[in-house]
Amino acid sequence: MTPNYYIVLSALLFTIGAVGVLVRRNAIVLFMCVELMLNATNLALVTFARVHGNLSGQVMAFFVMVVAAAEVVVGLAIIVTIFRSRRSASVDEASLLKY
Amino acid sequence: MNIGTAVFAQETVLAPASGTFSLIWLLIALPALGAAVLLLGGRRTNAWGHLLGVLMPVASFVVAAFLFAAMLSQPAAERGAIQHLYDWQIVGAFKVPFSLQLDQLSMVFVLLITFVGSLIHIYAIGYMAHDPGRRKFFGYLNLFVAAMLLLVLADNYLLLYVGWEGVGLASFLLIGWYQYKDSAAVAAKKAFIINRVGDFGLSLAIMFMFATFGGVTFETVNSSIGSASEGTATWIGLLLLLAACGKSAQFPLQAWLFDAMEGPTPVSALIHAATMVTAGVYLIVRSNAIFDAAPTARLLVLIVGCISLIWGAIIGCAKDDLKKALAGSTMSQIGYMIVAAGLGPVGYVFAIFHLLTHGFFKAGLFLGAGSVMHANNDKINMRHLGALRAVMMITFVTFGICTLAIMGIPPFAGFFSKDDIIKAAFSQSPVAGVVTLIGAGITGFYMTRIFLMTFLGKARWEDDQHPHESPAVMWIPMVVLAIGATIGGVLMYPSHWLETWLEPAVPYQAYTQVLPEWLWIIITVGTALIGISWAVALYRREVPVTPPAGSLLTRAAREELYGNEINETLTMLPGQVLTRSSVFFDNRVVDGFVNAMAAVVGGVSGALRTVQNGFARSYALTMLGGAVALVALLVLVRL
């Protein structure tokens, strides 16, 4: 089991998540893609921890998971509030902060 | 052309003032006090202001008479004194004392200024009787007399400059007396500005003198003139000539004199005929040592005098305004004096002689013109006068006597002085001699024209004119001046008194008489008679009330030989071009540059703000792009 396969998988997941953030219009799907990117980084961190025999990577992964959870809570709360007033979950329609 | 070589007269030894000579300062102090009281006292002095104004120059004349008697009692080499009042300017090596120098030359001027000045002050009591500002008028007149006396009594060029500026100020105030009239205010400004050009020359000359000689007193300059190179002396002489041109209304700075006739007639008589305009002649004669060392400058003095002589005479022939015609005559007669001064030691004395006789008859002519104006409801156009002889006999007689004097008819004063100038001119340069002779002929023409149009012929009066003779306070000074114009020449000429009197102060060299005396008399008087008879032929019969079209020269002379147009083109136009191009440059180029920079900033910011489009996904793309670039950079650096 070489760590290469895990790194490649992590990169693939990250890229798919990034493209998803850029392309999808629905706010919830956008958040799912962000979660995908975060999990990809978790995978990369754990892999390197295994490679170096050091547990720092796994500790950082824990931190990332906590942050991701907090972020999801706040983000979903905002989306629900916006949906209540606008009746739309499209990211493109919330574009008032422009020139 | 040979200009006379220098002949330095025996120098007068000027002792410090003592005895009677310690009263020299009173000559200036009395009119200055009068001016101060009248101008600062205000309306409280209105009732007796004119009397004080007359008293001061008369008192000055009395003091001058005492000083003259004291001078006569001294031997010729010791006539005069320098009264040192205080150390005026002390700046490092530059020391200028406030000293008054009374020598033979300044005594002659002091007598002229105080005597003729007193007469004109008396005349002004009557002339300005209806003017509510009469007290202020006398204040200004006294200021003028004080400044003029300071000018001729100064013992150094810087103090002379103070008097010079003072008379310029008085001239400005008095020309613009009728302030409410636009033409008078403009004329006053014009006189002051053109005088300023001359003042510029005088101040530069003083700077040159200090740089070359280390001091500006007459004594320092006269004794150290040998140490200056001819180039420096020429420059100083040319600058002094410029100053004289400005003050004496000679070509090319003559344009102000004709407009100066806007002032009341006593002003024209005192300032622009007898005294202020002669200050230029005084300056040149006083600086004879400088001109002796600079023959080129002296030649230019001669040329300027010749040109002004003819210029003024031509203008005087065509003007219908009585005072402006007399102003042309003044310019021409001062041209005679400048010609005489430009002849060198041969002519200095005759310049002063003509100055004195001119002071009498020209003041008499102007006072007569004032009398005519006073009687004719202030009308001055000669085409509306005529036949005043029967109504104003005294004015007619005095004006006639002064006219004969100015035309150079013996035995009146003008004949002797003008004759001497013509003879001296011929002895030095035939061209100058011919010019002065032609000028005498033209003088005969225009003066006869003035006399015929004003006093003889048919009455061309308008409805509001009821001519009458002037009151005694006005005709008595005119009579005194006419007497002076009659006997002045006879008194001074045959005994050659003036030459011997002035010799210690002003060099004198006898001219060679190229023709016998009787032939000269025939030539000069004959030329004047030719001019007179031509004018009689033209103006004896009908004088049209509307001016006829006239020849090209007549029309040019009515426009003062386009002097104003030349001045405008040469000086005003370049100035206007400069100011307008500066304004254009400031508005378009400087402001344009600043505005363009603002526009550039605005444009760039307008382009850049489109990045903020409000779409979260585009911001995400930007972040991704930036992150990728950063990682690539890190990878590249590591490698």
Question: What do you see in this structure?
Answer:
Helices cover 79% and strands 0% of the residues of chain A. Chain A is mostly helical. Chain B has 639 residues and is mainly alpha-helical. Helix content of chain B is 70%, strand content 3%. Chain B has helices at residues 24-41, 49-72, 104-127, 134-153, 157-175, 182-213, 218-224, 230-248, 255-259, 265-274, 279-286, 288-292, 295-318, 322-342, 348-375, 393-407, 413-428, 430-455, 472-492, 497-502, 517-539, 552-558, 563-608, 616-638; strands at 15-16, 81-91, 94-102. A three-stranded mixed β-sheet of chain B has the order 1-2-3. The radius of gyration of chain B is 32 Å and the shape is globular. Chain B starts with 14 loop residues before the first strand and ends with a helix. Chain A binds chain B through residues 18, 21-22, 91-92, 94-99, and chain B through 609-610, 612-617, 620-621, 624.
